[in-house]
Design a protein that fits this description.
The chain is of the alpha+beta class and 98 residues long. It has helices at residues 3-26, 62-88; strands spanning 28-32, 36-41, 46-51.
Amino acid sequence: MNMQQIMAQAQKMQKDIMAKKGQIDSMSFEGKSDWVTINFKGDRSVEAVNITNDAAFDAENKEILCDMIMLAIKDGLAKIDKETEEKLGSYSQMGGLF
């Protein structure tokens, strides 16, 4: 394989990675806990936070509500990581690409 072929293959791979990353970035993900739902975009930005009507929170429940929000954020980010690994995992051995 000559240098031009290697460069062409690398450019194609880069385009494939960028296209898949673009797909993930445009997807929506939902993180959930008992009282909280948080919507994310694939680029890890938070789109919305929703507290269910079941969440009767007062001063004593504030700490629990904060924990529920953190669990929902972790759940949503884990889903983004899973989708990224599924779409881009084959490129992970190349290091530093995403």
